[in-house]
Each structure stands twice: as structure tokens, then as C-alpha cells.
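Hi there, hope your week has been kind to you so far. Do you reckon you could talk me through the fold, stretch by stretch? I've dropped the whole record in just underneath, so have a look:
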Amino acid sequence: MAINTVRAMKIDIHQQRPVLGNKLGGLSGPPIFPIAIRCVYDLHKALDVPIIGVGGVATWEDAVEMHLAGASAIQIGTALLDGMHVFEKVKEGVQNYLQEKGYSKVSDIVGLAGRE
């Protein structure tokens, strides 16, 4: 699984102290998506194992990009804050993309961005 969260910190400028009680936390959601794409891409080029793309996937376009980078499966987390409908929207969008591009299944596009 790649990558989930990135170590992060937030400081309250008025209280002049870290916002979180244990000072550090994990940054997730769309801000880490480009980092997740790079990790999936690198892992796919180096390993011959299924990769679950995790980190900032919020739209069908994100899911397609994650598959193109090398993810066999996608995890959606932070985007659920907007509701469960995200799953259906992503599924429909990916299926429409595959059909439009002439592919029959997701596995047809996994890792295409890294082809030589």
C-alpha cells in the first residue's frame, strides 16, 4: 500500500504552540496526491507485486492517474468526508474513461505511464 499519510505539523500562531496534543500528525487527502503518485510510480517500476494506491484520491481522474502510475487497486479515505457517493462517482468515471479509450478492464491501464 502506498502511501496513506505524510508526517506533518500545524502550529497555532495565536497560542504559539502545536495544534495537536502529541505535536505531530499525518497530512492526508488531496495535498499528498502528487507524492502518492510518485511513490506508486516508483514502486511499480521497481517491483512486480500488486500495489494499492493510497493518498489523496478524491475523483475518478485521480483514480485513473493512480492506475496509470501502477496501482492495481485504489483506496479512498479523506474524500469520504463529502459522502459515500464518491465510490459510485469514481467507479462510473473510471468505467467511462476505459470505454472512451478502448480498454475493457482496469488492469489494461495499470502502469501505462511507466512504459518505455
Remarks:
- Residues 5 and 83 are 20 Å apart (CA to CA).
